[in-house]
Amino acid sequence: MATKYETVIGLEVHIELATESKIFCSCSAKFGGEQNDHVCPACCGMPGMLPVVNKHVVDLGMTAGMMLNCHINRVTTFDKKSYYYPDLPCSYQTTQWFAPVAVNGTVRINTSKGEKDIRIKQIHMEEDAGKLVHDDWTNTTFVDFNRTSVPLIEIVSQPDLSSAEEVVAYLERLRSLLRFAKVSECRMEQGSMRCDVNLSVRPEGSKVLGVRTEMKNMNSISAIERAIEYETARHIDAIENGTEELVQETRRWDDIKGKSFAMRNKETAGDYRYFPDPNVMPVCIDDEWYDGIKATLPEFPEVKREKYINELGLGEYDADLLTESRALCDVFEAAYAESNLAKESANWIISNCMKVLNRKQMTPDMLNIDGKSLGKLIKLVADGKVGNANARKILDEMFENDIDPEKYATENGFIVSNDTGRIQDVINAVVAADQKSVADFKGGKEKALMALFGKCMKELKGNCDPAVLREMLLKTIQ
Amino acid sequence: MELYLAKQDGQKGKKIALDDMILTKDMPTTAGSKMLENYMSLFDAEVVERLTASGYAIGGKANVGEMCIDLLGETSYYGAVEGEDGTLMTASAMLVKNGEADAAIGLDANGTPRRAAALNGLVCIKPTYGTVSRFGTVSIACSGETVTVTANDVSTAKNVLDAIVGHDDKDGTSLPEEKCAKVKAAEFVPAKRVAVARSLTESASEAIKQKIADAVDAFKANGIEVVEIDDSLLLTAKNAWNILMSAELCNNVSRYDGVKYGYRTKNYTTIDELYTNSRTEAFGELLKTAILFGSETLSDYNYMKMYDKGLRIRRVLSEKFDEIFESFDAVLMPASAKSAYTKADTEENKYIAYDENLYTAPATITGVPAVIAGGVQLLGKAFSENVLLDLAKKLEGAGK
Q: Are B65 and B75 in contact (CB under 8 A)?
């Protein structure tokens, strides 16, 4: 009987924190910009600059720790890690080695095999490195320090994962939790979420771990999935058929070739000479700070989902869609609080708001309209004060400017009119101008009525109760 | 033999010489190294801004030994400074002594400014760690290095010190203003009891012992009680600080890699060659030794028995000083083993600066203030500068 194998996987996930400025200086931490635009003497390694910790980085490190059920170290310290690489201007990285901000957490994942808890070893805060840009034309390498000292957290899991499916579930869970807590946007394509996979293979039931390799350079979840499947097969092949000797090494995943390759190893297998950074005093987290962060933690998405279904009566599909993004939940909850109309609030977000987002090529996380105003708008529609078409125009405006929907509707003549005299005038004019449709309708063509109805509605700019218009129109023709 | 590596004239006010470890945006800052030849900072050090704001004139940049870790500036890429009698001395001490500068600002990582002041009969204050901003100083050993003031007399040194002491948000180790205010207080505080460090004094030359004896006499003549104490624990400061200093130095100078600024070798084809050859060609021998030693102390297999132990000794020494300062207002000790050094001394023992740390490391590693006057050294508890300066007043004029 063929031996069965199990894969043992641990992940190191780097996440760029959603702060305005860098970790030790006041340069912008935003993605993009011209090369070396977001740079000062501190983050390009000039002498004389001293690091001063950005407190918001610690806030987000603690938040991440709490979201992943970690113990928060009340005294957390920064340490220096030395290695030479041109994208690291000081030739050391300031990170956390001796007392990371958070330790011993768990993340619960859901796969086809059911629920499983993945243990988190630690979360530490550190600074990112810059980027090397190679110009083949001049055979020159340039350094871009924009990303240098952008704050990161690294989430280190225990080797509790055993398949690509579990890894995907784990990463998606991390992404959902950290986006919900506004720790990071977690965009793999922009590099704000990066993942190194430590993998080994052993016969099922064996207590001894196999030879471990570390894979880097996967920039999408599907690439990670492919890399794990490839690497697992390579290990099993090596064990069973002796195709190659497995060694502990770092490998680079090439997603186009669909293969992993050993990285230059001898020189980089490093002694990083960690030591406490004497320029950064230990960060002491007192009860006030700790409790303050705790109070800002959002409900977990699944808690919201249950509430939406059981208390607010939303369908599962709607609840799933809304709880994919913290921004959608925030707008939904504010709109509901204002309008007291749960289903309508959900519908407005899922259909109308999503349409606008798509048109603007924005993601749900970027929804930034005022939920309370949306609630007011939904109420105006429900009360029959504003027609649907006009309400969508008001929504468009809400994406651009901070407006009061009722005031805006009034100013733009969007309020439904009950002036029957005006309606009758319009009907009379339309009927007089389109006798053909009147004749068609009388001849039995139902559609002709719709044409007349549409013309009247257009003339009234939509500000008319459709039922009233239809009734008056019928009366006029007959 | 250039005392000033860069000079600036025409400013009004008392003239300050800056050791070339202090960054200035209008003059190059070399740290005495070929690596930073002609390096121009984009900003002034905090001490420079404070001095200028207080009406002092920056005379220029004084030549220093490479990264300021040698005995008396002898390792400067720009040449050693020697007196007429062939004795070594730092450029800033000579400028102050000659009257070419009213005071000098230095960076004390390895005791050099204090040593130079003691050998030249000058006054030098190494204030409590954290009371003067290190923003804009070339970092060497951040956990202990301190900006110092050297002058011909106590009152000039005190005035310059007052101008530079204070909290600075740009330095994460800078102490709050209310603590700095204790150092800045105008009133000198008389001491009642002074301890003499027995074994440190014993280890020094006869000439130095005589200076200690003179200081003891001067204190006694002023009604101060003087008691010899067992200081054997303080002898451990030397090795502990040599470890911490070299490790931090190795890490701090690793940014000088030839990639971004400073010296770059012409002889490279790969990035590793660029690093190695730039550093090989631009760093001097003592600095290279310190880098290799520091790197060793931080390596995986040495960390616990060297660097970590160094940190533990720092704690033990701080506690020892707490204990001493419960009974005494100050500790009197030598600042060097001999009263003069020549190039022959540094050639005979290449690591003489590391050995001389025996006298300067106790204050550096613990961050307590130290004052040099009359050729001797006085240490006090944190923020007791005004006690030490009052004692120094009683030694003024002696020891030249």
A: yes
Instruction: With respect to residue B155, please indicate whether it lies within any of the assigned structural domains.
Output: yes
Query: Which amino acid is residue A163, in one-letter code?
Result: S
Domain chopping of chain A, boundaries: 5-287, 299-411, 420-477
Residue A344 and residue A336: Cα distance in Å, rounded? 9
In sequence order, which ranges of A287-367 are alpha helices (DSSP H)?
A: 287-296, 301-310, 316-322, 326-339, 342-347, 354-359
CA torsion, points A268, A269, A275, A281, in degrees to nearest 10? Answer: 60
State the complex-level ipTM. Answer: 0.93
Say yes or no for a CB contact (<8 Å) between B172 and A278.
no
Q: Is there a contact between A430 and A459 (Cβ–Cβ < 8 Å)?
A: yes
Q: Do B255 and A280 touch (CB under 8 A)?
A: no
Inter-chain touch B43–A84, beta carbons under 8 Å: no
Closest C-alpha among A47, A55, A63 to residue A22: A55
Q: Residue B333 has which token pair? A: 């000790």
Q: What domain range includes position B12? A: 4-236+311-391
What tens-digit pLDDT sequence spans chain B (400 residues)? 678 999 888 778 899 999 999 999 999 999 999 999 999 999 999 999 999 999 999 999 999 999 999 999 999 999 999 988 999 999 999 999 999 999 999 999 999 999 999 999 999 999 999 999 999 999 999 999 999 999 999 999 999 999 999 999 999 999 999 999 999 999 999 999 999 999 999 999 999 999 999 999 999 999 999 999 999 999 999 999 999 999 999 999 999 999 999 999 999 999 999 999 999 999 999 999 999 999 999 999 999 999 999 999 999 999 999 999 999 999 999 999 999 999 999 999 999 999 999 999 999 999 999 999 999 999 999 999 999 999 999 998 554 4
**CA distances (Å), A310 to each of A304, A343, B154, B267, in order?**
10, 13, 80, 73
Nearest CA to A42 out of A66, A22, A67, A69 is that of: A22
DSSP A174-220: HHHHHHHTTS----GGGTSEEEEEEEEEEETT--S----EEEEEE-S
User: Distance between CA A33 and CA A54 in Å, rounded?
Assistant: 21
d(CA A85, nearest CA chain B) in Å? 9
Number of structural domains, chain B? 1
Single out the residue of A40, A63, A65, A62 nearest to residue A52, CA to CA. A40
| CATH code of residue B63 | 3.90.1300.10
According to the model, what pLDDT value does residue A77 have?
Answer: 97
C-alpha separations of A72 from A79, A139, A170 in Å:
18, 47, 21
d(C-alpha B227, C-alpha B218), whole Å: 14
Sign of CA dihedral B126, B131, B137, B143: positive
Give the burial class of B272: count Cβ atoms within 10 A of its Cβ; 0-12 exposed, 13-18 middle, 19 or more buried.
exposed
Is residue B293 a part of any domain in this protein?
no
Instruction: Give A280 to chain B, closest Cα distance, Å.
Output: 6
Is position B265 within any domain? no
Does residue B154 sit at the A interface (CB-CB below 8 Å)? Answer: no
Q: How far apart are the first and last CA of chain B?
A: 23
* Residue A194: strand pairing partners: A14
B376-379 and B370-373 beta bridge pairing: antiparallel
* CA distance linking residue A105 with residue A154, whole number of Å: 13
With CB atoms and an 8 Å threshold, state whether B255 touches A47: yes
Which residue of chain A has the CA closest to B138? Answer: A48
Compute the CA torsion angle B233, B239, B245, B248 (nearest 10 deg). -110
Domain contains B306: no
The answer to whether B41 faces chain A, any CB pair under 8 Å, is yes
Rounded Cα distance, B91 and B73, in Å: 8
Q: Which fold has domain A420-477?
A: Arc Repressor Mutant, subunit A (1.10.10)
Residues with Cβ < 8 Å from B226, sequence gap 6 or more?
Answer: B193, B194, B195, B196, B216, B219, B220, B332
As a residue count, chain B comes to 400
Q: Do A90 and B172 touch (CB under 8 A)?
A: no
